[in-house]
Specification:
By secondary structure, the chain is an alpha+beta fold. It has one domain (39-177): Muramoyl-pentapeptide Carboxypeptidase, domain 2 (2-Layer Sandwich), CATH 3.30.1380.10. The chain has helices spanning 10-36, 45-49, 52-57, 67-87, 100-105, 127-142; strands at 93-95, 119-122, 150-154, 159-163, 174-177. Strands 1-2-4-3-5 form a 5-stranded mixed beta sheet. A hairpin with a 4-residue loop joins strand 3 (150-154) and strand 4.
């Protein structure tokens, strides 16, 4: 049996269209507030998604992460905010979330926390700045004042890798150079 369609008046149809547009804009505003805005006082979602490699490869999936990744990025930003507040300096994110295409292109491992939105590479602009940040956080971890899954001095302080788990109780507090 075919459904019976009821003809709508022009006014009724216009009202439905207007209502759907309002819902669409309300949904877009909600996404902007949660996904496009600030994750913390000093970290925004866009800086964790930014990728020259994705742009070069036209990997649009880099900019549309799954909701679970966005939640992980919020957690990551909150963890990094603690360090930024204690360190007292801006901490530029050079690599955050990586979609599979980007991760493969940059030579990332299949188990990279970047794929889940649980890792960020920070580059303070110089090896001396990166060393200062690394030493500061390594000391906090060593004193039991801060926990991290992985803190890695990458390539002789070319950048500092911060890795986390979704659950703080799973942090391994690994501090090393690679």
């Amino acid at each position: 049996m075919k459904p019976v369609y009821i003809a709508l008046s022009v006014i009724g149809l216009a009202g439905i269209i207007l209502y759907r547009k309002q819902l669409k804009y309300a949904a877009q505003d909600a996404v902007t507030n949660v996904m496009g805005g600030d994750l913390t006082r000093n970290f925004s979602l866009s800086e964790f998604l930014r990728s020259d490699t994705a742009d070069r490869l036209n990997a649009t999936e880099q900019y549309n992460p799954p909701a679970g990744v966005v939640q992980n990025l919020k957690h990551l930003a909150e963890e990094l905010q603690i360090i930024r507040d204690a360190f007292g300096k801006s901490m530029p994110v050079s690599s955050g979330y990586r979609c599979e295409v980007v991760n493969k292109a940059v030579g990332g491992v299949n188990s990279s926390a970047h794929l889940e939105g649980l890792a960020a590479d920070i580059n303070m602009g110089s090896k001396a700045g990166n060393k200062a940040l690394y030493d500061f956080v390594a000391e906090l971890v060593g004193q039991g004042k801060y926990s991290v899954d992985q803190l890695i001095n990458e390539n002789n302080y070319s950048w500092v890798h911060f890795g986390y788990k979704a659950n703080r109780s799973s942090y391994r507090n690994q501090v090393f150079a690679a």
